[in-house]
């Protein structure tokens, strides 16, 4: 018997170690359900083969099983254990004490902390005099000036990233509308095609009728 592994990267269930209550389930065959699975399994599977991959029952809520513990047609995997690779608070790459402490804080907490500390620091009134034309601090620049230059550079980066994010959102919206328009155009094309088929069929029937009439007239003339 082949050893089947659950396709979820963070799951270690396989044929050889699964509890009796755990079963493996095949992927859906309909495109609609596959799209729903893809939405839930994003970044959860290293590789997903619709015909071969299996998902164990631990990733499905109880409501998705019938009385015989069979998976319902509308079942979607929704239960996932956090992976070490993606856990912000369990980053094993941190080496120094400060890095480890930073890893324990969320992004929101860090932003609030930075803003709070910056509010306590005053920007030097003569900051421009310590900055060169290529945005570097001069050798005589005090620590406060160096710090504020870095802060301003970081603010500029954040601003540029925000602008890029806004542009990407607009691009996505444009693409979405284009796809919708394409779908409508496809529907119109299909409708026009059906209309043309009907017209061709009608013409063929009329042609056949005319041929019959010609044959009748020809027969009459021959008499």
UniProtKB/TrEMBL annotation:
<protein>
    <recommendedName>
        <fullName>THAP-type domain-containing protein</fullName>
    </recommendedName>
</protein>
<keyword id="KW-0862">Zinc</keyword>
<dbReference type="Pfam" id="PF05485">
    <property type="entry name" value="THAP"/>
</dbReference>
<keyword id="KW-0131">Cell cycle</keyword>
<dbReference type="GO" id="GO:0043565">
    <property type="term" value="F:sequence-specific DNA binding"/>
</dbReference>
<dbReference type="GO" id="GO:0008270">
    <property type="term" value="F:zinc ion binding"/>
</dbReference>
<dbReference type="InterPro" id="IPR026516">
    <property type="entry name" value="THAP1/10"/>
</dbReference>
<dbReference type="InterPro" id="IPR038441">
    <property type="entry name" value="THAP_Znf_sf"/>
</dbReference>
<keyword id="KW-0804">Transcription</keyword>
<dbReference type="InterPro" id="IPR006612">
    <property type="entry name" value="THAP_Znf"/>
</dbReference>
<dbReference type="GO" id="GO:0005654">
    <property type="term" value="C:nucleoplasm"/>
</dbReference>
<keyword id="KW-0238">DNA-binding</keyword>
<keyword id="KW-0863">Zinc-finger</keyword>
<feature type="coiled-coil region">
    <location>
        <begin position="172"/>
        <end position="220"/>
    </location>
</feature>
<feature type="domain" description="THAP-type">
    <location>
        <begin position="1"/>
        <end position="80"/>
    </location>
</feature>
<comment type="similarity">
    <text>Belongs to the THAP1 family.</text>
</comment>
<keyword id="KW-0175">Coiled coil</keyword>
<keyword id="KW-0539">Nucleus</keyword>
<keyword id="KW-0479">Metal-binding</keyword>
<keyword id="KW-0805">Transcription regulation</keyword>
